[in-house]
Amino acid sequence: MYNGSAMETYRKNWWKFAFGVIFCLLFRLIPFRAPNVEPILATMMPVGRAYGMFAGFSFAVLSILLYDLLTGTLGMQTFFTAGAYGIIGLWSAHYFANHQADAWGYARFAVIGTLFFDAVTGLTVGPIFFHQSFVESFIGQIPFTALHLIGNVSFAFILSPAIYNFMIEKKKKEFVASVNILNPKII
To answer: Which CATH code fits 15-168?
Structure first.
């Protein structure tokens, strides 16, 4: 028992981890997609929950780095976004070890994670690298964050529970009889 419920027994399947990274990469390559409407956070939360902190961190960083390498947009902003998502990946593993991981739990975390990500990236990259004022960055970030929240919360609510079930392979539980058939006294 852990946190009031039976602990789950499963095997980690790293091919499914790689599939998740590739899925997010291909989704981000869809042309004419709304900015920041992508399944990275919705996939990272179940990965962190199922595979742990290192996997959550690695998934986040790989998702950002591979996309920026493939599209030729690697720059200093890559390290801010990869770092911010990496922190969220670490945090998701810790969060879901102590909180309920259902559709509503994923959606709640998506709100907190999105606000953290957009604050860290949107309010630092513009002023530091593009010489925007903080006020310009803040005001410009509002519609971007609203769209990011809609996408992340929707994906978290709909996809995250299914992704978690896809990520884990449940082991057959061994049955240990409390009564021996040949010798019927209680063990």
So the answer is: 1.10.1760.20
